[in-house]
Amino acid sequence: MSTQPVNVATQKLPDMRYERHAGVPRQTDVSKALAHAAHPVLGNSSSEPVNVNEFEELARLALPNMYYDYYAGGAEDEHTLRENMQAFHRITIRPRVLVDVSQVDMSTTILGYPISAPILVAPTAAHKLAIPEGELATARAAAAAKTIMVLSYSSSCSIEEVASSCNAVRFFQLYIFKRRDISALLAQRAERHGYKAIVLTADTPRLGRREADIKNKMIYPPEKNLEGLISINIQCVDQGSKLETFANQMMDASLRWEDIRWLRSITSLPILIKGILTHEDATRAVEAGVDGIIVSNHGARQLDFSPAPVSVLEEVVDAVKGKVPVLLDGGVRRGTDVFKALALGAQAVLIGRPVLFGLAAKGEGGVRTVLEMLKNELETSMALAGCPCIKDITRSHVRTEHDRLPSML
Ligand SMILES: Cc1cc2nc3c(=O)[nH]c(=O)nc-3n(C[C@H](O)[C@H](O)[C@H](O)COP(=O)(O)O)c2cc1C
Ligand SMILES: CC(C)CC(=O)C(=O)O
Fold first, then answer.
1. What is the pLDDT of residues 2-28, one digit of tens each?
2. Are 260 and 290 in contact (CB under 8 A)?
3. How far, CA to CA in Å, does 337 sit from each of 109, 178, 204, 269?
4. Where do the FMN hydroxy acid dehydrogenase domain residues begin and end (predicted)?
5. Is the terminal CB of the chain with fewer CB neighbours within 10 Å at N or C?
6. Alpha carbon of 390 to those of 338, 353, 370: distances in Å?
7. Diameter of the chain by CA atoms?
8. Whole-structure pTM value
9. Taking a C-beta distance cutoff of 8 angstroms, is the pair 138, 168 a contact?
10. How many CB atoms lie within 10 A of CB 181?
11. Sign of CA pseudo-dihedral 308, 310, 314, 320
């Protein structure tokens, strides 16, 4: 790892983040780490994770530093990375009692496709950095949980391999490249292989500054889905993150709202737009004819100091006026987070890093456990808040900072 400063602050005050993984052991030491975690007095208390947050440490132990940093990191000072979770913590739940919750039903639909709970797998790149089976394991875990996986265009297993891994509803995430023909080809391959929607990521005209990746001179694996389509020689670049160099060469930074029409012309699949954070853009997205909106700041990896998605969710929902479904991702780590997002008008949430951490720590079973944990927590939250089914979760079940403000004046 380079020790050169990558920002003004680190010139004066070394940022300890980059030291945190020094000497971190590899996968073989995870079981030893787990064994040592037994309580010295109580002895046999289980060291298995009991919530999804606990998978992060296991993943950190399992992964080479460069890959852990890539998965975990956010942009610049990582203010938004912290805020994505803290914004959920500022919302409280207003439970109702004496409601019959002997049966709790979390099932719902997205674009008409039934899922067991409103928790989807967000598109994240390069799952083979976590384990050799890569996205095939993730796809099987999502199918076992009866939910939808959004495959990243930058998957390390191909569109076709994932399509034939198991029978399930999947969506495909797309970037629009300078080479439009390549984006069109990817969308058409996804459609041909049974993916049911295109998720257009709109928040990446160029890559955000992920300083851990810059320090690590992040090496990015070859793009499986672009094999034979394009060759960009970035491995010779000695400076900074090679992913950043690659992405900035590929992305079409001139993309505009008018271009949604082009995307419509090359696919008959529904189009969800990912990366909306304001009511202005939500209105434009509806006008542009998209079939759904994902409120997202890309897991705080793009623009630092962009708002936490849950803090702007209601603004987007109000602008959309029910015309298309609104989903959310960013910072969802608990069933109560899912409950809060639904109460503020999201139809479902997606999770990114917890899936990667589950995969790195415990493979396919880890992803399955992560999804089951969130579902179990959501079910408990619904029971304790007096909501037997998803449609029973309403705005009046949460209290936000905006609600509190008037009462303080
Ligand atoms: C390692 C990593 C890779 C990602 N790759 C993509 C990607 O290829 N395409 C995309 O649209 N979003 C990508 N994202 C963003 C996720 O789709 C999602 O917005 C974010 O992870 C949600 O936040 P969370 O990680 O707090 O759940 C990536 C996120 C991470 C952490
Ligand atoms: C640019 C992509 C290849 C990956 C991505 O979106 C990410 O790392 O956040």
1. 556 767 664 443 332 333 333 333 444
2. yes
3. 19, 37, 26, 30
4. 44-403
5. C
6. 11, 25, 20
7. 66
8. 0.91
9. no
10. 11
11. positive
- 375-405 pLDDT tens trace: 999 999 999 999 999 999 999 999 999 998 8
201 lines ligand 1 (CB under 6 A): yes
**Whether residue 154 has its Cβ less than 6 Å from ligand 2:** yes
- From the candidates 193, 298, 397, 402, which is the catalytic residue? 298
Q: 359, 125 in Cβ contact below 8 A?
A: no
- Distance between CA 147 and CA 170 in Å, rounded? 9
In degrees, rounded to 5, the angle at the alpha carbon of residue 201 between the alpha carbons of residues 313 and 18 is 85
pLDDT at residue number 47 = 80
Kind and range of the H or E run holding 163: helix 159-163
| Secondary structure of residue 168 in the 3-state scheme | coil
Amino acid type, 108? T
Is residue 226 in contact with ligand 2, taking CB distance under 6 Å? no
Give the pair of three-digit tokens for residue 386.
Answer: 């007096």
Q: Which domains does the chain have, with CATH numbers?
A: 108-408 (3.20.20.70)
